[in-house]
Amino acid sequence: MKKLMVIMALCMMMVGCNSDDHEMVCTYKKDKDKGTITVRYSGDKIKQLQFDATQYIDSDLLDEVGEKDFEAYWRKNVEAYNKEGVSVDSAYDKETRMASMQIDVSLDQLKDRNYSDFYLNDNLSLKSFKKRVEDQLNYTCK
């Protein structure tokens, strides 16, 4: 029984026990901003996305939201995701004006949400996702 539990735990830590599951990593870096998107997929169908981004919050956004209110604004975004069952962690450093966010979402969690919020279209194709993040966000995917 103990061995079975160890095997199950190992399978859960890996991309999956299914050998058809693969991973693509997309990265971005410009000035102080950087991001990573890890895509888990099988065939050409996306199964899970992990976003990890850090960005400098420019004056335009602070002016729009209000510098004093930005931290609360950032927290509200995180709470909205969490209410939907999407795992999100974030931080905002007022001194450096750097904000970070980590999102882990499975496609089951996106059923009632607009896929384009996550640079996906309805067919959840890996190829179309890759093209969108490379063209629209200047990420490099491997």
Task: Describe it.
- The chain contains 4 helices and 6 strands.
- With 142 residues, the protein is α+β, with helices and mostly antiparallel strands.
- The chain has one domain: YehR-like fold (2-Layer Sandwich).
- It has a 6-stranded antiparallel beta sheet, covered by helices on one side.
- A hairpin with a 4-residue loop joins strand 4 and strand 5.
Poorly predicted runs of 5 or more residues: 1-18
Distance between the termini: 39 Å
Q: What count of domains describes the coordinates?
A: 1
Structure classification: alpha+beta
Proportion of residues in β-strands: 35-45%
Gyration radius, in Å:
17 Å
Summarize model confidence as the mean pLDDT. Answer: 80
Quick overview:
This protein is 32% helix and 35% strand. It contains four helices and six strands, in the order αβββααββαβ.
Give a topology summary:
Elements: H1 2-13, E1 21-30, E2 33-42, E3 45-56, H2 59-65, H3 70-83, E4 87-93, E5 98-106, H4 126-137, E6 140-141
Antiparallel strand pairs: 1-2, 1-6, 2-3, 3-5, 4-5
Defining key terms:
single chain; alpha+beta; YehR-like fold; 6-stranded antiparallel beta sheet; 4 helices; disordered N terminus
